[in-house]
TrEMBL record, chain A:
Entry similarity comment: Belongs to the ABC transporter superfamily.
Domain of life where this protein originates: Bacteria
Organism of provenance: Chloroflexus islandicus
Keyword vocabulary terms for this entry: Amino-acid transport, ATP-binding, Nucleotide-binding, Transport
Family annotation (Pfam families): ABC_tran
Biological process according to GO: L-amino acid transport
Domain ABC transporter: residue ranges: 6-234
Transmembrane segments: none
Protein name: ABC transporter ATP-binding protein
SMART domains named in the record: AAA
TrEMBL record, chain B:
Localization annotation: Cell membrane
UniProt-recorded Gene Ontology molecular function terms: transmembrane transporter activity
Family: Belongs to the binding-protein-dependent transport system permease family. LivHM subfamily.
Protein name per Swiss-Prot or TrEMBL: ABC transporter permease
Transmembrane segments: 35-57, 64-84, 90-110, 122-143, 163-187, 199-219, 231-250, 262-284, 330-349, 378-403, 415-439, 460-482
Pfam family, one: BPD_transp_2
Domain of life assignment: Bacteria
Length: 235, 492
């Protein structure tokens, strides 16, 4: 269980002419949940987008199970088994729940195979199966966004702030779902809600101002109030 | 209830406006006049729709404003007409295109991708030189002239190059394609993907080119000996297919490298309007052509006009009786074509995986990509589809409006107006906008013809034709005032 599935090494990413990531490195072990923490604007979303190939880094390297993936187009990275649950969900609002899920199939029958697992995790999706995604509540949209990443056989899930703007009771549902998912895949989780991240993650990385500044075991960070105050601010 | 009215006030305003207009129009015109205005409007609307549907899909999915869409419409008309009336030009150039593509594909099959990157530029130069040498002295003008154009028709044997030279040129272009293809694949990733290495395509295309080459003369005769209806159907297919191929090529070569620079994309499509127009003038001459109606729509005689649509299926009259007034049957065909295409695209969008990808891509192309779908390939496909629809519209318009290098421009402008009215990126909007603009044009034309009579005026008020044309702009301004994103638009 200790082999490294994802290895990001000193990546530098630009958006336009802005140098956003100035050396981010991290390792995600297979079968674990790794939390990516940091203040607003630290570069967490940009890191996930870099891994996904949506904002390819200009230098540095990204390896998935040892194979370099930086420079490949996003769709190829996805096909290698990386699922992405973006910030603000990015549900296809005019497509039904079913179509949202079907779109994520990489081969015929993916959805049929995974449907029971997904519907057990998020029973609401079954109820609204033929409704447009835009008609769902915020929490249901988040569930749909996560479910979409579960349709294909993904080795690694990149999940960006799944608790954002959701009521505590919904957040609990999502925590439970992520915990079940972690039994089967590997998750790199960006989360502002520290309590939630602390519940779920095995390891953590902290980003500050576009750099990875600290990492370790989540169990240790929980007691390290100095670090929490310094890098995670009011969170 | 009140809330419902507030939410639907756009719809309600639209319905009220439509009813008021209907009441006014029926007081203004006799039913039979009204019917033929409506049918004329539908005819124009169907043609506009063939342009707006592609424009709108292309804009919705890839944010490209394709100013060259009208040019593709015009080129479609020329290709269709050429196949219909004088296939010689197509038969004498098709082998060249096929041979070039065959060479290009063959290059992917051979291990060129491992050549050093420094070979790239010299290879391009060689390719251009070989290509120029292969077609040097090949004349298009005699192939394009028809009896109808001023020069009179040149006999086929004179117009054609001798078969030996022609085959040499064909092979030369295959070699050009091979070299250019080699330059293209150097350092690329094609070597990684054996799926692209299917030999059947390049060899099949080359064989086809070499089969057509000696048969050009007889093939021309065979096509012209077909009855006009079959030739007309072939013209529709050839025009749409040619337009789709050109559109796909255009996206792949000129639009695709510029997705990060949208202003340049717009400039490129604008530039293509001029390039396309000049190219057409260079090949077919600056004058216009008239395309004869196929037999289905051209019979005249004692039993004509056909009393109704069912009778027309039997007697194929040039016009059909609508409430006592003859209406050209060909225009009914255009309306039917527009409706068929509307249903076809709607089904494609609604029920196929490609359609699902397009609808999702209109909302968020990046997310589609992140799900493992190669959106760029879908872009090319949709560009080809949109161009094909426009070109199909061009062929359909040819017997109705005539063919000239300026044919596309009028359609381009009106189609833009229609798309803005309907809402950029919305398929339903594209259809509704086209319909509205078509009807507005038809009513505008009628008002120019007869003026309008308002109750408090003693004489009919008359209009100049330019006001009829401006009426669509007026509608656009009104719609945008009420709904800034257009009738069905969601994007700004
Ligand atoms: N499109 C953009 N243009 C310019 N700067 C951006 C853009 N997107 C993000 N940034 C900047 O990049 C930095 C990192 O952003 P982000 O990765 O979204 O942070 P986080 O997800 O940690 O809140 C921020 O300072 C933000 O202002
Ligand atoms: Mg973020």
């Amino acid at each position: 269980m200790s082999d490294v599935l994802l290895e990001v090494d000193a990546i530098h990413t630009f958006i336009g002419q802005f140098h956003i990531l100035e050396g981010v490195s991290l390792k995600v072990r297979a079968g674990s949940i790794t939390a990516l923490l940091g203040r607003n604007g630290a570069g967490k979303t940009t890191t996930l987008r870099s891994i996904m190939g949506l904002n390819p880094p200009r230098s540095g390297s990204i390896r998935l199970a040892g194979e370099p993936i930086n420079g490949r187009p996003a769709y190829e990275i996805a096909q290698l088994g990386v699922g992405y649950v973006p910030e603000h969900r990015a549900i296809f609002r005019d497509l039904t729940v079913e179509e949202n899920l079907r779109l994520a199939e990489r081969k015929r029958g993916d959805l049929a195979k995974r449907s029971d697992f997904i519907m057990a995790l998020f029973p609401d999706l079954k109820r609204f199966y033929r409704h447009p995604g835009g008609k769902l509540s915020g929490g249901q949209q988040q569930m749909l966004a996560i479910a979409r990443a579960l349709v294909a056989d993904n080795r690694l899930l990149l999940i960006d702030e799944p608790s954002e703007g959701l009521a505590p009771i919904i957040v609990e549902q999502i925590v439970a779902a992520l915990r079940q998912m972690a039994a089967e895949t590997t998750i790199l989780l960006v989360e502002q809600n520290f309590a939630m991240a602390a519940q779920l993650a095995d390891e953590y990385y902290i980003l500050d101002d576009g750099r990875s500044v600290q990492h370790g075991r989540m169990a240790d960070l929980v007691h390290d109030h100095a670090t929490i105050d310094k890098y995670l601010g009011a969170g | 209830m009140i809330e419902w009215i507030q939410r639907r006030r756009g719809l309600i305003a639209g319905i009220v406006a439509a009813i008021l207009f209907a009441v006014w129009a029926s007081s203004q015109y006799e039913p039979r006049v009204l019917a033929s205005i409506l049918l004329s409007g539908l005819t124009l609307g169907a043609l506009y729709f063939l342009v707006t549907s592609g424009l709108s899909l292309i804009f919705g999915l890839m944010d490209v404003l394709n100013f060259a869409h009208g040019t593709l419409f015009m080129i479609g008309a020329y290709i269709g007409f050429t196949l219909y009336a004088n296939p010689r030009l197509l038969l004498n150039t098709l082998p060249f295109v096929l041979a070039f593509v065959a060479g290009w594909l063959l290059a992917r099959w051979l291990p060129f991708s491992s050549l050093p990157a420094g070979h790239r530029r010299p290879l391009w130069v060689v390719a251009v030189l070989v290509g120029v040498f292969a077609v040097w002295g090949f004349e298009l003008a005699p192939l394009a002239t028809t009896a109808l154009s001023s020069g009179g028709r040149v006999p086929t044997e004179q117009a054609q190059a001798p078969v030996g030279i022609f085959i040499a040129r064909t092979l030369g272009l295959a070699i050009t394609g091979l070299i250019a293809g080699a330059a293209f694949v150097i350092g690329s990733e094609h070597a990684r993907r054996p799926a692209n290495r299917d030999l059947a395509w390049p060899l099949g295309l080359l064989a086809l080119a070499l089969i057509i080459a000696p048969l050009r003369l007889s093939a021309e005769g065979w096509i012209l000996a077909l009855d006009s209806n079959t030739r007309f159907l072939l013209a529709l297919v050839a025009g749409a297919g040619g337009g789709a191929a050109l559109g796909g090529l255009m996206e792949w070569s000129l639009i695709r490298p510029l997705y990060s620079r949208p202003i340049y994309q717009v400039l490129v499509t604008l530039g293509l309007v001029f390039v396309g127009t000049e190219l057409v003038k260079g090949i077919w001459g600056p004058g216009g052509y008239f395309m004869e109606l196929p037999a289905w729509f051209s019979r005249r005689g004692p039993s004509c006009p056909s009393p109704n649509l069912i009778a027309w299926l039997q007697d194929n009259c040039a016009s059909i009786d609508v409430l006592g007034r003859p209406f050209p049957s060909y225009r009914i065909f255009i309306i039917a074509l527009g409706i068929a295409m509307f249903i076809g695209i709607a089904v494609l969008l609604r029920y196929t995986r490609l359609g699902m990808i397009i609808r999702a891509g209109v909302q968020d192309g990046e997310m589609v990509q992140a799900l493992g779908i190669n959106v760029r390939r879908v872009f090319t496909l949709v560009f080809a589809l949109g161009a094909g629809l426009a070109a199909l519209g061009g062929v359909a318009a040819a017997p109705f409006l005539g063919i000239s290098p300026g044919l596309g421009q009028e359609f381009q402008l009106q189609a833009f107006i229609a798309v803005v009215i309907g809402g950029m990126g919305s398929f339903t909007g594209a259809a509704m906008g086209a319909l509205l603009v078509g009807l507005a044009r038809a009513f505008g034309d009628q008002m120019v013809l007869t003026g309008i009579q308002l109750p408090w005026m003693s004489e009919a008020m008359t209009f100049s034709p330019s006001i009829a044309r401006a009426s669509t702009v007026l509608i656009m301004a009104l719609v945008l005032l009420l709904r800034p994103a257009g009738l069905f638009g969601k994007k700004e």
